[in-house]
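Side project, low priority. Logging it here so it doesn't get lost.
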Amino acid sequence: MTRYRTGAVAVLEALEAHGVNTIFGVPGEETTALMTAIEDSALTFVLCRHEQAAAFMASVHGRLTNTPAVCLSTLGPGATNLVTGVADAQLDHVPLIALTGQAGRDRLKRESHQVIDLEALFAPVTKQSRTLLMADDIPSSVAEAVRLAKHEKPGAVHLSLPEGVAATQTNAPIVQARYTRPGAAHTDSLRDVAKAIGAAERPIVVAGAGVLRDKAVDAVTAFVENTQIPLVTTFMAKGILAKDHPQMLFSVGQPQDDIIDRALQAADLIVAIGFDPVEYDTTKLTLGKTPVAAISLAPSPVDSGWHITAEAVGELSHTLSSVTAHLNEARWPTCPTFASVRDDMIQHLSRPNGSDRNGLMSPHDLCASVSDVIRPEDTVISGVGLHKLWVARQVIAKRAGQVIVPNGLAGMGLALPGAIAAARVQTKGRVLAICGDGEVMMNLQEMETAARLGLRLTIMVWEDGGYGLIDEHQDDDRPEFSFNNPVWSKLAHSFGWTHAHAKTAHDAYQLLHAGLTAEGPTLVSVRVDYALGGGLPTAENAA
């Protein structure tokens, strides 16, 4: 018979039994029993300075390991602070467990100090939100939470643990979750997808984050090489093909008319592989008319807004090899529009640097410096803002999954805490986070966390003194959303970080290169003018 232990211990044992090894969080009175149990467990607790940052850390941990981490808070305001980071994991389909303390059961469902309905609060941003009302139910409830978090499509699950339940004794045994891997797609659906592709004259592949989740990068590469069909990726699937690969058409997702849009307009079929509708507006992707052949691990939502003419649901690598076999070695000739798009993108990305002026740098030059510096073993995390559009377009990944661009919820504040999570799990290489000055201040307190943990990471702040992405969408007579920034050197030094300021793109390259071997956290500040160099490439200014 399983020994008696508290509900708090049972929660941790069940998490550990399912491969969860890390908890990011901020403790509170209602989590005292949990914190005591964590001290005696094999799980690692990372003390954070804000619950939102803890959730963002857990989200990035899940992206990189495919295993959920826990973000922990107390009840009331601690729990409400978690919500944004939990929603980020849910919309980006990342496994995460949100664990919140709660008042005793006798105070639930009535007006009481700091008590809100946490099940209802988290329900819209999770796959499941549950209160652990009985200690004996904990092992099975935790097992189901982990199963749901990891199951395709992955996402966030919330568990609330009332004080009394955390302290109650239970001898309920550990329950093992059963995972069902996606099997092979149905034979008829494979034939339908192959038939749709075979009938197209100008098909184009759009690969999404599901390709990375299912470890199908090699299978996608083989498919486009065997068929000669060009490939576009979403922001979240950058790096599937190298820049110089002849089928590479770079990434889609820019809000304005884009060079890549010309290729989509020319296509008569989109082959969507591992694409999540949350990654990009499907009506923009298909122009409301281009048919889609979908290859995915889970059925595409019927109301996604695009016309799916054929769909194969199953393990991606097997599906792609089967579809290739059905195509009987068919290869598609290069479409002139596709070739023109590729040439224009290569020309734009390869143009020389040197557009810095009066200490201001163009984002093109900065992205080129980042692309030149990073090695395959490094990880780049983008924050959210106008700089994200540049990173997603211009930073050239040297491997799939190297560049993390949060794009489902697209919540500001992820980059700094996300870099902390990445630096913890990365065994080699350097973590670089690129933030706007509007975003980095949102979780600035975690600079202390990075210094306390002695992590090797670099934060690059693009400083323009305002919310640039918002300004981009205003009319000419718009109000200016400008603000002042701290003295970055003093700020960095106060947290025990190293600071350097780059005045030119060459400076940025040198500082980032030096940062590859620097010990501890480093802050690099740059002043950016998003209009320098002509702004983002569009269909009109491609040359």
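Brief comment: Residues 187-342 form a domain with the Rossmann fold fold (CATH 3.40.50.1220).
Revisit when time allows.
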